[in-house]
Specification:
Layout lengths: L1 E3 L3 H11 L2 E5 L3 H14 L5 E6 H6 L2 H7 L9 E8 L4 H9 L7 E6 L6 H6 L5 E5 L5 H14 L2 E2 L2 H10 L4 H14 L8 E2 L2 H7 L4 H4 L1 H8 L3 H13 L4 H22 L5 H6 L9 H10 L2 H20 L4 H21 L1
Parallel strand pairs: 1-6, 2-5, 2-6, 3-4, 4-5, 7-8
Helix pairs in contact: 1-2, 4-5, 7-8, 7-9, 12-13, 13-18, 14-17, 17-18
């Protein structure tokens, strides 16, 4: 079976019950990883967690089947998480499916892969497998997901509240779910006893908006304000901002610029277009217009490629993620400054 981020929440419970192999892919690597964790949490008895890399499976395609059919060290159930790139796990998955005997659940998070990958094609028509494709989140889809969470928790609110929650969570549905659960507990809400969620409750215990923490550094870098970069990196360290969270904010802004650029087409009046674009949040219009004047076409594509490269480097060298991020952001800021001076 197949799913995307739009219907994953609805498909996930059935998939966790019926499927034994899961393939999470798409440009939104964090969304794919979060989905794998969500499925793992839905398994009846996940047991011991075994982690394998795509490189391991590429070198030894039999390893996955052996591990999936092995007994846990502690005598209970187990599940396997595979972190792969592209189709590294294809031969191993093919070998696993061709084996005999019960196997534990296998969850594959495949960066740089899509639902057109060979591994996805191997699994998508099987009733015992799920292929889930994740695109970078946009405000509208996350707001819709938050509305569903709010209703399921026994809360009532308007779309403005749901959008504010989506923004406060940085378009991260896992964080949004945590916020909704916290608000439902605070208001003593349940499906049987609904409560109204208003601005007061958000102000009292809700998360601060992403703008309060992440957007200043995003705007400084993408607008080419190199004189602000050192101060923003210092602030990032002072308030212990998660480097990967900062990078994800850059990835979301890059996705937003790509979407606005596609709507803009060949028009030259960038500022006027963005000011009249109802899909751009009013507080972001000035920054989006300034950045869109710098990052369009090939420049935007190169910037997105650099962000992807940074993401992989930070995951590979977790202990030096701060340094890797700082170096990468400095390069992007200098390029934006050069483009601004032209």
């Amino acid at each position: 079976m197949k799913a995307t981020q739009k219907d994953f929440a609805a498909v996930a419970p059935r998939a966790a019950r019926k499927c034994s192999v899961f393939f999470f892919c798409g440009p939104d690597e964090s969304g794919a990883a979060a989905a794998a964790q969500r499925i793992a949490g839905m398994l009846d008895d996940p047991g011991e967690r075994i982690e394998l890399s795509g490189g391991d499976l590429r070198r030894d395609p039999v390893l996955l089947g052996d591990e999936a059919r092995s007994i846990s060290l502690f005598g209970g159930n187990r599940h396997i998480i595979v972190r792969a790139s592209g189709d590294e796990a294809h031969d191993a998955v093919e070998t696993l499916l061709g084996g005999t005997g019960a196997a534990c659940p296998v969850l594959i998070v495949a960066t740089s892969a899509t639902d057109k990958a060979r591994t996805a094609k191997l699994l998508e028509k099987r009733d015992d497998a799920l292929v889930a494709m994740f695109w970078p989140p946009d405000l509208a889809s996350v707001t819709a997901s938050v509305r569903s969470m709010i209703e399921a928790a026994g809360l009532r609110c308007g779309n403005e509240i749901a959008e504010r929650l989506a923004r406060a969570a940085g378009l991260d549905v896992a964080i949004a779910q945590s916020e909704v659960s916290k608000l439902a507990l605070y208001l003593d809400a349940s499906p049987q006893s609904p409560r109204t969620l208003d601005e007061r409750a958000l102000d009292e215990i809700g998360a601060k908006t992403e703008d309060d923490g992440l957007m200043p550094i995003v705007n400084a870098v993408l607008s080419g304000q190199t004189n602000r970069l050192s101060g923003e990196l210092h602030r990032m360290a002072e308030v212990s901002l998660n480097p990967l969270g900062v990078l994800l904010a850059f990835e979301r802004r890059a996705a937003q610029l790509a979407q606005v650029s596609a709507r803009l087409g060949n028009r030259r009046d960038v500022g006027d277009f963005v000011r009249n674009d109802s899909r751009v949040f009013f507080k972001e219009k000035r920054d989006v217009a300034a950045q869109l004047a710098i990052w369009r076409g090939d420049k935007l594509a190169r910037m997105v490629a650099k962000l992807i490269e940074l993401h992989r480097a930070m995951l590979a060298t977790n202990s030096a993620a701060d340094e890797v991020l700082a170096q990468g952001l400095a390069m992007i800021a200098r390029e934006a400054a050069r483009a601004e001076r032209r």
